[in-house]
Write a structure and sequence with these properties.
Layout (H helix, E strand, L loop, with lengths): L7 E7 L3 H12 L6 E8 L5 H11 L3 E6 L4 H11 L4 E4 L5 E2 L3 H11 L4 E4 L4 E4 L2 H7 L10 E4 L15 H12 L2 E5 L5 E2 L13 H4 L2 H15 L4 H20 L8 H19 L9 H15 L1
Parallel strand pairs: 1-2, 1-4, 2-3, 6-9
Antiparallel strand pairs: 4-8, 5-10, 6-8, 7-9
Helix pairs in contact: 1-2, 6-8, 8-9, 9-10, 9-11
């Protein structure tokens, strides 16, 4: 890799994670890839997180801190994007941490392969448009934003939606629709989770899941507008996601007053599953993709 390395902005949305935040910040600031900035967005935390953010900003010249009223995960991510100075964007949750070579493992490929996006998946290699978007919609590429490294310019004109669930996956759909070149690598080791029930990206219940159908419809509408020839792939992606949500929601123990909402959500999910089943992207599907269809049927009926 050329040592004239691009600046990377690592954006960390922060909400009530004081018990983990120092570990997270230290892991980012002690990367072997040194040309980076850490962007901490305090999303209205009510614990000691704001003070910890300010402490790191005073200690390190490459730390930016923004304090804002609580607006949720997407608002924090959008704020981070608005102040980030890097040529590439990466993400870490405030209750997680990364190994010292995490950023370098992405940037070596981004620079050496001269690509817009580096992500992880099971179909390794370099892809142009629309091949990368197809691979993503078929779930051959991971659907989590923290396992991506994306050229900053691709985010221009985009923002994370206000949906209560799946905003990162929707953003990735839009990024792949803009990217000219993507490199997919095997899923790397080195990203570590901590379980924080109050984290910006961890809180899920029937309330957040109620927002999934609207998020799914936005994905379908976006693909219909930007790449209508790939609508069957988008329906496949939504079908797969709906099956996962269906299984999770069906297993939720809920009080009587929530059962009607649960019934309504399951009905909406069944509609997305049925649409996907009747519009399969067979020209793009492999044997493993047909296996995914079988798993979705299992999620819905068993």
């Amino acid at each position: 890799m050329n040592r004239n390395t691009p600046l990377v902005s690592v954006i960390v949305p922060v909400y009530n994670s004081s018990a983990y935040l120092r570990t997270c910040c230290d892991s980012v600031l002690h990367q072997s890839y040194t040309n980076l900035e850490l962007v901490l967005v305090d999303d209205g935390s009510t614990d000691g997180s704001p003070a910890i953010c300010d402490e790191y900003a005073k200690r390190y010249d490459n730390v930016q801190v923004v304090h804002q009223s609580n607006g949720g995960e997407s608002a924090a991510r959008n704020t981070g994007l608005s102040v980030a100075q890097g040529e590439y964007i990466m993400w870490v949750d405030s209750d997680d941490w990364i190994d010292p070579d995490w950023v370098a493992s992405y940037m070596e490929l981004a620079v050496d392969q001269a690509v817009d996006v580096v992500v992880a998946g099971r179909v390794t290699g370099q892809y142009g448009y629309p091949q990368a978007l197809i691979q993503y919609l078929l779930n051959h590429i991971e659907h989590t934003i923290w396992i991506s490294c994306v050229r900053r310019v691709l985010f221009d004109g985009l923002s994370f939606s206000s949906h209560t669930i799946g905003c990162d996956a929707l953003m990735l759909t839009k990024l792949f629709a803009k990217a000219h070149s993507t490199y997919v690598m095997p899923r790397p080791e080195g990203y570590h989770y901590m379980d924080n029930e109050e984290s910006v990206t961890r809180v899920h219940n029937i309330g957040t899941r109620m927002g999934w159908p609207a998020r799914a419809q936005d994905e379908l509408d976006f693909v219909a507008h930007t790449a209508p020839e790939l609508m069957s792939c988008a329906r496949f992606d939504v079908m797969r996601g709906a099956g996962v949500i269906y299984r999770n929601v069906r297993a939720l123990p809920l009080p009587p007053e929530e059962r009607e909402r649960k019934k309504m959500l399951l009905k909406q999910l069944r509609r997305f599953i049925a649409e996907g089943m009747t519009h399969l992207p067979m020209r793009y599907m492999s044997f493993k993709d047909y296996k995914q269809v079988i798993l979705t049927i299992r999620d819905m009926w068993f």
